[in-house]
Design a protein that fits this description.
The protein is mainly α and 213 residues long. Helices cover 57% and strands 3% of the residues. The protein has 2 domains: 82 residues, no CATH class; 102 residues, no CATH class. The protein has a two-stranded antiparallel ribbon. The N and C termini lie far apart (48 Å).
């Protein structure tokens, strides 16, 4: 089952595919009524995961632990089959997590590389889970990286490295219950979609007013 799926991710400093970065509608694969509902339910659940984890730890020095708590919660939402409702619920949850982390990270300073690592790992997990469940993703929409300053460079390099290493060693259960490696979905016919997804998820672009400074 090969499907064009827009991997949905919003993180601090990352511009999404449209100018409506934090208010984007559901991805193309999740716009039918039932799927859209699942996506929005997942998004709300993802935001709640971040809220609960942050309320429990509430410290910029413990952001890695916050991310670990959120990741544990996401594992419970990961679908076991390739049914669209479950995939949209999961994609929405990941998007909600990224949006929630955006708000948390805006209160923390000097966390650029760690943020990149966290976003890179979660994005890699989403890419691999969808690839394994669907038997590969279609090409994502084209994305061109924007200008990069110091924090952006740290975010991008750490996110790139983590996304690459995670996807190359990740394994998960496919829809038939068999354990499958994500490595084949980073090579050959899938190298382009893998590379474009990494660029999309790890791109850091400054706000227009920052570029004018």
């Amino acid at each position: 089952m090969r499907l064009d799926v827009r991997v949905c991710a919003v993180s601090a400093g990352v511009l999404w595919l449209s100018s409506q970065a934090h208010a984007q509608e559901a991805p193309d694969g999740c716009r039918e009524t039932k799927s859209a509902r699942s996506y929005q339910q997942g998004k709300s659940a993802g935001k709640r995961l971040v809220e609960v984890a942050w309320k429990q730890l509430k410290s910029c020095s413990r952001m890695r632990q916050v991310a670990e708590l959120v990741t544990t919660g996401l594992k419970a939402i990961r679908p076991a089959t390739n049914q669209r409702a479950g995939l949209c619920l999961y994609t929405g949850a990941m998007d909600g997590v990224f949006e929630g982390l955006d708000g948390v990270w805006s209160t923390c300073n000097d966390q650029c590389c760690l943020e990149g690592e966290v976003i890179g790992k979660m994005s890699a997990t989403l890419y691999c889970d969808l690839s394994i469940l669907l038997g590969g993703l279609g090409d994502p929409e084209q994305f061109v990286r924007g200008p990069v300053y110091t924090c952006g460079a740290a975010f991008q390099s750490c996110c790139d490295a983590t996304f690459t290493s995670t996807t190359q060693r990740y394994t998960a259960r496919a829809a038939d219950g068999k354990s499958v490696s994500c490595l084949p979905y980073t090579r050959g016919a899938y190298q382009s979609v893998w590379s474009e997804t990494r660029n999309l998820e790890c791109a850091y672009e400054l706000e227009p007013d920052e570029l004018e400074d």
